[in-house]
């Protein structure tokens, strides 16, 4: 029963994600392309920001 409840909760979160991002209007292949591009952009942004912060703190600390 616990596995079924967990799956139901995950399905609800996924549905909320689709509603908030308006992806429910897209076809499945379009959702996949959007998700791949979104992850790639987010990953690139995170990496560049972390490198920038690392550089800043190295200069601030004199390392």
Automatic annotation (TrEMBL):
<keyword id="KW-0746">Sphingolipid metabolism</keyword>
<keyword id="KW-0812">Transmembrane</keyword>
<dbReference type="Pfam" id="PF11779">
    <property type="entry name" value="SPT_ssu-like"/>
</dbReference>
<comment type="pathway">
    <text>Sphingolipid metabolism.</text>
</comment>
<comment type="similarity">
    <text>Belongs to the SPTSS family. SPTSSA subfamily.</text>
</comment>
<keyword id="KW-0443">Lipid metabolism</keyword>
<dbReference type="GO" id="GO:0004758">
    <property type="term" value="F:serine C-palmitoyltransferase activity"/>
</dbReference>
<keyword id="KW-0256">Endoplasmic reticulum</keyword>
<dbReference type="GO" id="GO:0046513">
    <property type="term" value="P:ceramide biosynthetic process"/>
</dbReference>
<protein>
    <submittedName>
        <fullName>Uncharacterized protein</fullName>
    </submittedName>
</protein>
<dbReference type="GO" id="GO:0017059">
    <property type="term" value="C:serine palmitoyltransferase complex"/>
</dbReference>
<dbReference type="InterPro" id="IPR051900">
    <property type="entry name" value="SPT_small_subunit"/>
</dbReference>
<dbReference type="InterPro" id="IPR024512">
    <property type="entry name" value="Ser_palmitoyltrfase_ssu-like"/>
</dbReference>
<dbReference type="GO" id="GO:0005789">
    <property type="term" value="C:endoplasmic reticulum membrane"/>
</dbReference>
<keyword id="KW-0472">Membrane</keyword>
<comment type="pathway">
    <text>Lipid metabolism; sphingolipid metabolism.</text>
</comment>
<keyword id="KW-1133">Transmembrane helix</keyword>
